[in-house]
Amino acid sequence: MQTQSIIPSGRACGAEVRGVDLAALDAATVSTLQQAVLEHLVVVVRGRPLADPQLLALGRAFGEIEPPGMSVIGKPYIDAYPEILVISNLMSDGQPLGNLGAGEAVWHTDMSYRSRPCTIAILHALEVPPAGGNTYFANQYLAYDTLPAALKARLDGRMLIHDETYNSAGQLRKGFAAVTDPREAPGAQHRVFRTHPQTGRKALYLGRRRNAYIIGLSLTESEQLLDQLWAHASRPELVWGHEWRTGDTLIWDNRCVIHRRDAFDPQARRMMHRVQIRGEIPR
Question: How many CB atoms lie within 10 A of CB 275?
């Protein structure tokens, strides 16, 4: 049995977990992963291929699996495993085999448009392009900690609309109509600051920029303030980036990070499978 170790990235978040077998989970491995995610917010296990049942078992080790958001084709991509969301640019007979395509996926929090956003997200790489497609994470504990006191006071208790119509690649979700006025966007309303139920720390909680609206402000004031908050939340000193290899698995705490993805050559192949864990109402 390999010795388990955790290698911090040296950045504001992120660590590599070594010596664990995600395909043969035991209590010690699950405990190591859970504690590493709480401490480092996002962890990677390198080069350990997982079959879909093994990915689902890994997800269930963290809690109840949350069904994915609506795909761009209006149904699950994998009929045998509807809990798995496919992230891919590949096509078959003119139909996408996964969400997001090959373009950039902008900074966002997963599924914040739901009243109970997912807590943990797990993304596994089946195929990766030779360049591009890297994923970046920004620590939102530190984003909150470093906000000016006057801005914290101004936003304390404020609610934010989290739009459901578009995904992070700008694709309109199946069954939704385009929205041009953020005040009319469908989606959950959450506090701008949320408190992590396990660590007790506060984090900036913005969801995604498009069609967001801070309730109670004028639209112009909300737009200006959100631009300011997003610039603050994604500062380079808060960010760690992951360059993918086949078989990598990323696990992150969706309550206290935002993430984005680089674009890549649309002629290259990228295939990722993801599960996410059912969450609580943000407080």
Answer: 26
Mean pLDDT (whole number) for 64-72: 83
Three-state secondary structure call for residue 137 = strand
User: pLDDT by residue (tens digit) across 230-281?
Assistant: 999 999 999 999 999 999 999 999 999 999 999 999 999 999 999 999 999 9
Whether the model pTM is above 0.90? yes
Q: Is 200 left (phi over 0), alpha (psi -120 to 50) or beta?
A: left
DSSP assignment of 73-106? TSS-S-TT-TTPEEEE--EETTEESSEETTSPEE
| Helices 27-40 and 52-62: angle between axes, nearest 10 degrees | 70
Are 261 and 135 in contact by the 8 Å Cβ rule? The answer is yes
Q: Which CATH number fits domain 5-277: 3.40.50.720, 3.60.130.10, 3.40.640.10, 1.20.1740.10?
A: 3.60.130.10
